[in-house]
């Protein structure tokens, strides 16, 4: 039962990741980002990675469930292999992310500035709204643009005093939320390690039972 719960959790996690990726790709606000002509592919790449990772996690979880229920060493072996691949990719992505944090920040700022400069276009305006709502920021001057820029989150005059610019908000997200992102990634990695251990223990138990028959 414990094995099945672990595999089911992996499937649910994959479903959640896939749902987030599809939401970002097809939501009425964020899909406008894909309609912009931009040389910056950071956001596009991230969204498609989420979709691919979510689908792969669902497949791996399905293999684990089927392997455990049918006591199939082959399926459990495939489960272990794919889970190890995902784990290795996660570690590689984490190392790359920490090593290139400043580059990612600069690319996001550049992407925002490109969108900001195209704000006369309908697609760019929708993207700005989504971006600024998510980060609770406004333009490149913060509160100075809050009252007359209609793509910014609606606030009172008093509330708008504390509004920061979006480039500053991007810096804040990466610098203050990096520990949270790291903790979530570590939690997922631990779950994957347990999943690999469970699959090997179950595989050995199945082999031992068959040898005894």
TrEMBL record:
Keywords linked to the UniProt accession: Cell adhesion, Cell membrane, Disulfide bond, Fertilization, Lipoprotein, Membrane, Palmitate, Secreted, Transmembrane, Transmembrane helix
UniProt membrane topology term: Multi-pass membrane protein
A Pfam family that the UniProt record links to this protein: Tetraspanin
Localization: Cell membrane; Membrane; Secreted, Extracellular exosome
SUPFAM superfamilies in alphabetical order: Tetraspanin
GO CC, alphabetical: extracellular exosome; plasma membrane
Gene3D superfamilies named among the record's database cross-references: Tetraspanin
Superkingdom of this protein's organism: Eukaryota
Cysteine disulfide links: 138-152
GO function term, MF aspect, one: integrin binding
Any one biological process term the GO annotation gives: single fertilization
UniProt entry tagged with the keyword Metal-binding: no
Transmembrane domains' residue ranges: 7-26, 46-69, 76-99, 180-206
InterPro entries per the UniProt record, alphabetical: CD9_LEL, Tetraspanin/Peripherin, Tetraspanin_animals, Tetraspanin_CS, Tetraspanin_EC2_sf
Similarity remark: Belongs to the tetraspanin (TM4SF) family.
PANTHER family in the record: CD9 ANTIGEN (PTHR19282:SF163), TETRASPANIN (PTHR19282)
Name this polypeptide is given: Tetraspanin
Organism, scientific name: Pelecanoides urinatrix
Higher taxonomy: Eukaryota, Metazoa, Chordata, Craniata, Vertebrata
């Amino acid at each position: 039962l414990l094995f099945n719960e672990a595999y089911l959790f992996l499937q649910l996690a994959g479903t959640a990741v896939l749902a987030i990726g599809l939401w970002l790709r097809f939501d009425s606000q964020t899909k406008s980002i894909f309609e912009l002509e931009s040389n910056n592919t950071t956001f596009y790449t991230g969204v498609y990675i989420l979709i691919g990772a979510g689908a792969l996690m669902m497949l791996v979880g399905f293999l684990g469930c089927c392997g455990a229920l049918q006591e199939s060493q082959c399926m459990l072996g495939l489960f272990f292999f794919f889970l190890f691949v995902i784990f290795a990719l996660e570690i590689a992505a984490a190392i790359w992310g920490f090593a290139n944090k400043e580059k990612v920040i600069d690319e996001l700022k550049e992407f925002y500035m490109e969108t900001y400069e195209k704000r006369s276009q309908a697609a760019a305006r929708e993207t700005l709204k989504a971006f600024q709502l998510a980060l609770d920021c406004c333009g490149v001057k913060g509160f100075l643009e809050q009252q007359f820029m209609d793509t910014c989150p609606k606030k009172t005059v008093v509330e708008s005093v504390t509004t920061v610019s979006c480039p500053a908000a991007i810096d804040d997200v990466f610098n203050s939320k990096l520990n949270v992102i790291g903790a979530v990634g570590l939690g997922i990695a631990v779950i994957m390690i347990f999943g690999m251990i469970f699959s090997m223990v179950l595989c050995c138990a199945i082999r031992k039972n068959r040898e005894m028959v």
